Amino acid sequence: MSLFGVIVPGRPCLAPTQVTGQAALGSVQSGQWVCDLVNPGEISDLVCFLTSPLPSNNEGAGIYYSIPPFADWEFMGVITNNQPSILLSPGWSLLPQVNQQPVVKLGVSVESAGVLQEKLLTKPPPDVKKEYARRVALNLYRYIESFQGGASMPLLDQWFQRFEARYQRDPNFVMKSE
């Protein structure tokens, strides 16, 4: 049985396979787990979880993905004994280099808590909801700007700055206001 599980809504539950010895693919090394996710552009959310506790509370599992030719791995998040599951919104539909791939590899690697904490600080997972809101606002901005003949739009700039500040405090604030 795999130490990890992966759920993509609407698809069967996956159990990443442990890579051992000669089975290593690209930069995946022995003692790590991988599984394939087909049609990544269709995946808006996925859940990664522990099926049993890690051997030590000083360890965690880093979650990564890789696109063909599967040489480089991008950090996505962390699960630990204290946080045994995570909901990830990878934003692959917004990334042409991923969206157009038939498959991505999801990798899970047991690492020290210190290493994973450093990764969370230096390369936090993307905030897809914020990026979506930013792109909607930018689309609105460009649409309104087209009627102004390219003139600056301080009111819309001010709105967007306020939007970003409120989003930092509460990512769901838009859903609460009417």
TrEMBL record:
Q: Which organism is it from?
A: Neospora caninum (strain Liverpool)
| Name of the protein in its database record | Uncharacterized protein
Residue ranges constituting the Hikeshi-like C-terminal domain according to the UniProt record: 131-174
InterPro entries listed in its UniProt record: Hikeshi-like_C, Hikeshi-like_N, OPI10
Hikeshi-like N-terminal domain residues: 7-85
Which superkingdom? Eukaryota
A Gene Ontology molecular function term for this protein is:
nuclear import signal receptor activity
Q: Which family does it belong to?
A: Belongs to the OPI10 family.
